[in-house]
Amino acid sequence: MTRENKVKIFILSFFFINISFLLFVERPISADTAIDSQNSVANAYINVTAPTTNTWSLTAPNFNFGTQTASSSVINSNATGDAAIKIVNLSGTSTSFSLQQSISDFTLVSNTVVLPATGFYVSVANSSDGKLIGSSNVNIFKQNGVVLRSGTGANGTMNSVAVTAQLTVDGTTRVIVTGSYKATITSTLVTGP
């Protein structure tokens, strides 16, 4: 191969490499032009069913009445719940329901001494969306009391607003033993108003 042919091959190779390089360099994107004015319409489908278990769930707040001074009189203590009442209805229907609560005796954490409580009054504010209707001053001490009812469109996730409680302790007939007390609140959702 002659020197002249080698130079020609080199120049052609260089030329093709540069053209290839230019073909792969990024070019500005332009919008496509529609060639069919009768665009096709498609659909997407999903079938959602209610879960077979755990279609309802409930979360109720705790109350902390802090430190109170023992007395030989009636003591009324107020507390606000640490959260709203949250009810989740995944049944897919707006079933009417009520929330019943009851609270046990307050017993000393260290032993079985019982606080001479005579009442535990719960008040629940209505939800802002009207799905939950609260009650006021319902005594749930060792008895069931309806503190909340369903409102309009009561399905999905529902939250009450403020939940407050008043604890009444009667020190006039029994000595109030000092210490930390605890009680259990039981919450039950029932169907119907």
Structure description:
The structure is a single chain. The protein is 11% helix and 33% strand. The strands form four sheets. The protein has a four-stranded antiparallel sheet with strand order 2-11-6-8, with no helix packed on it. It has a four-stranded antiparallel sheet with strand order 7-9-4-13, with no helix packed on it. Strands 1-3-10 form a three-stranded antiparallel sheet, with no helix packed on it. The protein has one helix and 13 strands. By secondary structure, the protein is mainly beta. The chain is elongated and about 115 Å long.
Characteristics:
four-stranded antiparallel sheet, 193 residues, 1 helix, 11% helix, 13 strands, mainly beta
Low-confidence stretches: none
Q: Can you count the helices?
A: 1
State the separation between the terminal residues, measured CA to CA.
102 Å
Main pleated sheet: 4 strands, antiparallel
